[in-house]
Amino acid sequence: MRILLLTLAMTLCFGLTGLAADVASPPTAEVAFDTPPAPATAISPKYPEAARKEGITGMVLVKISIAADGSVTRTEIAQSVRKDLDQAAVEALTTARWTPAQKDGKPVACEVTVPIQFKLAEKGEKK
Question: CB-based contacts of 93: which residues, under 8 Å, 6+ apart?
Fold first, then answer.
């Protein structure tokens, strides 16, 4: 049930459409909690211009630690595409405001892995 709730909550929270770079799927959690962490603001990665010009696409997995106050305290690249895309993903996740996870009604620190998908629009497709 927790997995279902986590998946549903993260799908709703990360439902970014029309972006060149977006969160690919719900993050996976590594700490037990009743309510998963959720972004309080949109996560909007900026597609690096060099990567866009070179047609580079892919998914960056970023492991983040979210403190009980909702701040991101640590990041780690779990799956890299290339340095500029990795940096764009980390910047987007660390500048977003987060609502912390909750356990027994109290905010708790946790770690989650968030996938950020960088893809280019097809010709004729709107961004």
Answer: 43, 62, 64, 72, 75, 114, 116
Q: Which two tokens stand for residue 117?
A: 């998908």
Q: What is the pLDDT of residues 16-72, one digit of tens each?
A: 333 345 555 555 555 578 999 999 999 989 999 999 999 999 999 999 999 999 999
- Kind plus residue range of the DSSP H or E element containing 78: strand 72-79
CATH number at residue 79: 3.30.2420.10
Cβ–Cβ under 8 Å, residues 85 and 60: yes
- What is the torsional sign of CA 75, 10, 119, 59? positive
